[in-house]
Amino acid sequence: MTPDTPDRATADGSASTRADTAFHEVVIVGGGPVGLCLGVLLARRGIDVVVLEARPERTRHSRAIGIHPPARRVLAAAGVVETLAARGVELSEGRARFRGEDVARLDFDPPVLAVPQWITEQTLEARLLELAPRALRRGVRAVGVERRGSGAVVRAVSGGAEVRVAGRWVVAADGARSPLRGALGIPVLERRYPDAYLMGDFADTTADGTAAVLHLECGGIVESFPLPGGVRRWVVHTDALEADATPARLARLVQERTGAVVDPASSTMLSAFTVHERLADSMLRGRVVLIGDAAHEVSPIGGQGMTLGWLDAEAFAPLLADDVLAARYGFGSDGATVWPALWARVADGRRRAAAQAARHAGLNMALGRPLAPRLMSVRNAAFRGLYRTSAVRSWTSRRFTMQ
Ligand SMILES: Cc1cc2nc3c(=O)[nH]c(=O)nc-3n(C[C@H](O)[C@H](O)[C@H](O)COP(=O)(O)OP(=O)(O)OC[C@H]3O[C@@H](n4cnc5c(N)ncnc54)[C@H](O)[C@@H]3O)c2cc1C
After folding, report:
1. Cα–Cα nearest to 320, from 53, 36, 47
2. Are residues 232 and 307 part of one domain?
3. 179-205, pLDDT tens digit by residue?
4. Into how many domains does the chain fold?
5. Global pTM?
6. For residues 130 and 124, is the Cβ–Cβ distance under 8 A?
7. Same domain, 377 and 258
8. What are 369-382's pLDDT values in tens digits?
9. How far, in Å, from the CA of 58 to the mean position of ligand 1?
10. Does residue 237 share a domain with residue 166?
């Protein structure tokens, strides 16, 4: 009996290979939006899947809000799109503004959905537990992975004790710093940008309704997006990382650059960040697959990282499921061996999509940097002329919405 083949049940009902090693057909490390989504897609196909998540509880620290149109297809397959639509705001218009006047207006059709990331994760987690009540193990931190002939074993720590969880496949969805990627020694192409941002959620005092607004101002870009519950997110380009900034500081920057008055007392989230880009050399190593930020981290400016990760999950779920089901029912197929070209083609396609999103984000960041008043006026006047053309508007809105 190979170590990755189930031979008996453990106390919690999962199959086991040795007294101390649980076995699941697919082991996902990381219960962020991408790991949870893949868990749901696999559980819907009847696969025995487990998600190992280091955090005992979900963080409410806000990151992603934008769910782009291609992600709706994946979330519909996961059975959560209606729930998320009901909890979010549909963003159907984008405006670029300079000194209080619109430079360009774009229609987003279909619209982008804005939902705070913790709500998205909560919704996916509830769906996963509905399909497979024991599929999420919180408080389990993976520390390494050993590749086995026809599987892999995750070494992890839980409550101070070492645990081992084997799978026919292991998926690393453990985020941008991916400990599993490090343990496998997969090289990463890394790039740091000079840009820094200050971001915060406040009561919406604007008249912009459900429009996203990019203020192209000389001191640096100010972006604002509607959120559910009458809240608006503000993201401001800063000269350097302002880790100790207060809501009052962000409100002052917003007012100085755009004239909008934001009430610091209504702040529910404040965060300062710099920008990294990371692209793993490969998404596949034996029977370990990297997806989401573990495989590719793109700049939050452009807000495409979570959707990219969900598209990875959509691409790999059928491959994983077919291989697992073939092995389960003894069809004798060994997906990664029989179809290496197919797996490699899917991985290449996903890496290309990530590289393209990174290029778009790079352009967005360049557009948001400070510029001398005369140059900014000339550039924005040129944009105003250009965006009278419907083909340019339609190309730009497709680019912003990942279509
Ligand atoms: C400020 C900001 C704004 C953003 N805005 C957007 C946006 O609007 N739209 C968008 O699409 N994207 C956006 N992003 C990017 C988005 O947040 C990420 O792309 C997304 O969270 C990636 O999901 P993930 O599941 O791959 O990784 P993560 O969300 O990082 O989740 C990884 C999970 O793995 C767990 N983990 C880590 N190590 C281990 C371990 N050793 N063992 C077990 N578990 C482990 C972590 O606890 C975490 O829960 C933004 C990012 C930032 C920083």
Report:
1. 47
2. no
3. 999 999 999 999 999 999 999 999 999
4. 2
5. 0.93
6. no
7. yes
8. 999 999 999 999 99
9. 12
10. no
